[in-house]
């Protein structure tokens, strides 16, 4: 089948009224959780996962995917109007977005952010449409050593790109790997680190771990001090960017789209890192880098395009290799498994309707998100005016319900709170939670591929050197580990960290 | 490296030592036939090594000033949340979904930034009922009825 046939097949699935409805619900929920700091797309997917059990796999996964990219649209609204990122990927949007709002230019900031997101989101889906089949074919030749190499590269990338100390990133990475080992060993069946708690025999749940690390710790951080929120309280007008705005931002959007897509593909890359990378690139390309942080529209357009483009990029390894590059897509992978359609190189051949249905629904979903974020901006602004003291108990309750409903187990709620407290202290002591979450997601796959590789080679590590893909990944990982030792690069990395710390 | 890194890295180091001990207890196996503890051993060693390096950097660091990472924290706020949620989980099955939700919301509305009783109770009651309608009735999620079982909730 040619690409056109695949696209037509996909649209025949995505355009079914029930799938359009699910896509709309996903976009709406995604935008909502993007606007509200605390829940996040992983939490929202956990909350709505049980509702997909009654639906067809296509409808369910289309909705969950829409939550993921919808959240990127919503995150910018809070960053621009309140100076608090609704999503981690919108942190950098605060820098210039909020300044624009203070100068009375909230409308153009929101408008350009939504337009850039739409263009980049669509661009990434186009690339996904063409790249996914190619990679799926290549992935058919992947064995345990290649998977192991890819995962090592992903994990090292996330520690290299972490905003704080790289050593601290590695500590949390190893901790994540350890937590992923909890449960019965798949080969021998021996219980590992279960402390004779029967509910832990299946391992720690992804939903409670992710909700705890991101959602609960966020609530605890927000509530520990009295925070006065300055919400932009004027009428939002001129949402449609002017010709001058377009001419200032056109290349920022293009660059953001490309950066976002390729950062999205990298395991551990994703929306957060791509937005930071895009901001740094925009500053570099600008003829007035000193004005960044004072309300430059390019500082909004680039990162917002990048974080949306990353959502399409992230789908590539998930759908074609079965490797989730971040915690949110790990939940999506879980949903696909529950529906009996595990993603990977064979998905495109075994479930073409689902595969192409998900991809083409993203074209429609991006258009829906644009409509939800421009004409309906007033609704989201009103939502932001609800005081946090009213909002946070509800967010906390949703997190508790979300963690409980996956297995109907109170142990999951306890797990969520333990990881929430752990996440809170980690953030206070400067340890990032993202490497832990990624290692927790990739840990079981990594362990399996390492053990299989060693069994295949009778204990020889040379098996990794015999595979060109594995050896390339391992060399790249080694280079990333050694790069900070080069003085000039160490200084550059320090500069970036400082900029981020200043913002916080 | 900041001075408070010393304490955090020592905690991670201790955790790593415990993991190495657990790995050996589980059985590490051999390279050709890795056992259940093999991967844990690798991760535990990695954790010990990296946390020891952080500790070493903090010890050798010239920056001896202690950074007050907890300054300005109003401790009763996170404490109220943590204790309230653990009590919520403890009484989740006994009292049932609607009642524990209501009680948790009242505690959070009153305990963090004091609201008037009338507002706290009314908001909590409305939110608890709305959440039950959406999740238990509409989305058909299963929750314990607890003491309200008698009235058929």
Quaternary organisation? heterodimer
In whole angstroms, the N-to-C terminal distance of chain A is: 51 Å
Instruction: Report the strand count of chain A.
Output: 2
Shape call of chain A: globular
Write down the secondary-structure element order of chain A: HHHHHHHHEEHHHHHHHHHHHHHH
Helix content of chain A: over 70%
Give start-end ranges of low-pLDDT stretches of chain B.
none
Name its key features:
heterodimer, A: 504 residues, two-stranded antiparallel ribbon, 2 strands, globular, B: 153 residues, mainly alpha
In short:
The complex is a heterodimer of chains A (504) and B (153). With 504 residues, chain A is mainly α. Chain A has 22 helices and two strands.
Can you describe this structure?
The complex is a heterodimer of chains A (504) and B (153). Chain A is mainly α and 504 residues long. Chain A is built from 22 helices and two strands. In chain A, strands 1-2 form a two-stranded antiparallel sheet. In chain A, a hairpin with a 6-residue loop joins strand 1 (183-184) and strand 2 (191-192). The N and C termini of chain A lie far apart (51 Å). With 153 residues, chain B is mostly helical. Chain B contains six helices and no strands. Chain B has helices at 4-26, 38-60, 76-90, 92-95, 97-111, 117-138. In chain B, helix 3 runs antiparallel to helix 5 and helix 5 (97-111) packs antiparallel against helix 6. Chain B is flat. The mean pLDDT of chain B is 88. Chains A and B meet through helix 8, helix 9, helix 17, helix 18 and helix 19 of A and helix 1, helix 2, helix 3, helix 5 and helix 6 of B.
